[in-house]
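User: tokens in, sequence out, please.
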């Protein structure tokens, strides 16, 4: 702590400077990383989080764990934001990015203690990152220009191996791949530019240059709707390809349970964000009536206004009406008479997705520019059929054969809420991985293979640097080994021996002239048997972009925290003039 009297300045608060603040920041970051460390890998453990009102959350997803914690330390919050960023950008690898960042911080702090200036460390980390990314793109990336389902399923399995559905990964990985492929859309020029910027590697250039006009595609995950329903086993989960399920049921028993297209006419769906209840006067409106007969006429007109609205919707050709608000019994009568399925209190987000899937629009008001009420038939969505299906304890509406931009729904089944939530998170990670692989066409081996190869390469690269950055790059190389070490420890294996073997194999592969030895760069850990194997052949793969982004994000987070050498915590200003 600095003494205000010695500086002649007074700060209304506390000030920490130099090594004190660095040690505090690194300690806080390591505390956060240690929380998620044991959940890394295919045999990682779960965390149970209980909030102040007793709600329980059981998960081993790094981003979810950190999001649920109330982290007060500002440096530790950087790591929480880092996990969220990785979750948004890539969808997977949230735990490993936090572990790498904390290890880089710990080693950076040790270097500062040994007399290396923080600026040198920051510069060295940046140099090491540049060399690491370059090596991944040049040597580790496997370009799969036309990805077969096998690679996609392997990547999906790798992603969900550490999750609750890891044991059924064969079933769920196929489900994830089918779901992502079902929402394929033509990519725009901006999308292609985005892939190439994120991009992944030489394959990004190849994808633009080689096909000569060949269409690139995008896979919007927002078009995949995940619905959770209690009951049955997780293996009874299913995908409605090209369809949509909405958690709503018919508003009245007299309505039909299904509507199908006939003679080439598609089923039309009206999606409303407005009340279909008896029209009432607005608040504060007073009507003074002298003749009691006028009251009956006012009531009749109120009913007529709603009936006219419903008549306009029916005349536009709607066979199914879904609204986010209420529908009273009076209005329901008109729908029952017309043989229309009507559902009320639907989720607004679900309706927006359904509108995109069916090519319709959510209608918030029927008023037009002239002040009259009309219903535009162009707002109606189209599909082949709508059916009410009993799922678990309640009913859902299934929309088949959507005519819009493509949509799919995954209906998850499970024993309880905790299991369904964790399945949802696991499936989200897998969907993100499959999407990234389809868009970037590149993969790298998992199971610590990339980190071990980079560690050996950066060690050799450091020897070519003639400045003090050499020590920093060597520390960066050692820091990357935290991933294979943590994987081995979590699998109850001898981490020191396994990582030493892995490094030895990668060193042989990188230093040998033999082409057979060159394939050793794909060697990684087999955590079930505690051996070393070729993870590319074994199918333990992940998107190249995931590995590159996690290195970039982790390094930038470590640099951000190492830059800090002064922390001023201001006192509460209450009571001061």
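Assistant: Sequence out:
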């Amino acid at each position: 702590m600095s003494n205000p009297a010695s500086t002649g300045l007074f700060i209304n608060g506390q000030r920490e400077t130099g090594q004190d603040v660095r040690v505090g920041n690194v300690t806080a970051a390591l505390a956060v990383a240690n929380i998620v460390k044991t959940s890394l890998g295919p045999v990682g453990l779960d965390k149970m989080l209980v909030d102040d009102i007793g709600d329980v959350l059981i998960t081993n997803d790094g981003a979810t764990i950190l999001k649920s914690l109330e982290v007060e330390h500002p440096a530790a919050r950087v790591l929480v934001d880092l996990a969220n960023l990785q979750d948004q950008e890539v969808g997977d690898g949230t735990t490993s990015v936090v572990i790498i960042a904390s290890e880089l911080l710990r080693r950076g702090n040790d270097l500062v203690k040994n007399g290396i200036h923080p600026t040198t460390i920051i510069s060295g980390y940046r140099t090491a990152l540049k060399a690491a990314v370059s090596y991944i793109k040049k040597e580790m990336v496997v370009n799969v220009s036309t990805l077969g389902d096998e690679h996609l399923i392997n990547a999906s399995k790798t992603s969900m191996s550490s999750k609750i559905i890891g044991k059924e990964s064969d079933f769920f990985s196929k489900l994830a791949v089918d779901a992502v492929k079902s929402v394929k859309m033509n990519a725009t020029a901006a999308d292609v530019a985005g892939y190439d910027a994120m991009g992944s590697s030489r394959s990004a250039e190849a994808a633009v240059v080689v096909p000569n006009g060949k269409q690139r595609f995008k896979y919007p995950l927002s078009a995949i709707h995940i619905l959770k329903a209690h009951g049955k086993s997780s293996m009874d989960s299913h995908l409605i390809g090209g369809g949509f399920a909405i958690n709503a049921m018919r508003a009245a028993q007299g309505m039909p349970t299904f509507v199908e297209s006939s003679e080439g006419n598609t089923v039309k769906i009206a999606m409303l964000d407005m009340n279909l209840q008896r029209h009432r006067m607005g608040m504060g409106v007073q009507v003074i009536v002298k003749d009691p007969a006028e009251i009956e006429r006012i009531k009749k007109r109120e009913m007529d206004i709603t009936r006219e609205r419903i008549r306009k919707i029916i005349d536009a050709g709607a066979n199914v009406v879904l609204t986010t608000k209420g529908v009273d019994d009076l209005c329901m009568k008109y729908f029952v008479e017309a043989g229309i399925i009507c559902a009320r209190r639907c989720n607004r987000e679900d309706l927006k997705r359904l509108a995109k899937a069916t090519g319709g629009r959510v209608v918030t008001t029927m008023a037009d520019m002239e002040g009259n009420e009309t219903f535009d038939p162009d707002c109606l969505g189209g599909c082949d059929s709508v059916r009410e299906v009993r799922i678990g304890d309640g009913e859902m509406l299934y929309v088949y054969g959507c005519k819009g931009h493509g949509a799919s729904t995954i209906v998850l089944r499970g024993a309880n809420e905790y299991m369904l939530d964790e399945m949802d998170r696991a499936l989200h990670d897998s969907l993100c991985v499959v999407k990234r692989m389809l868009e970037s066409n590149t993969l790298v081996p998992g199971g610590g293979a990339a980190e071990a190869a980079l560690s050996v390469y950066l060690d050799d690269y450091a020897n070519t640097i003639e400045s003090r950055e050499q020590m920093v790059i060597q520390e960066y190389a050692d820091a990357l080994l935290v991933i294979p070490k943590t994987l081995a420890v979590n699998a109850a294996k001898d981490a020191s021996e396994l990582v030493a073997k892995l490094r030895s194999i990668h060193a042989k592969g990188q230093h040998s002239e033999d082409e057979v030895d060159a394939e050793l760069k794909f060697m990684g850990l087999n955590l079930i048997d505690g051996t070393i194997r070729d993870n590319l052949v074994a199918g333990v793969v992940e998107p190249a972009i995931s590995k590159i982004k996690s290195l970039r994000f982790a390094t930038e987070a470590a640099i951000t925290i190492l830059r800090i050498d002064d922390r001023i915590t201001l006192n509460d200003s209450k009571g001061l003039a």
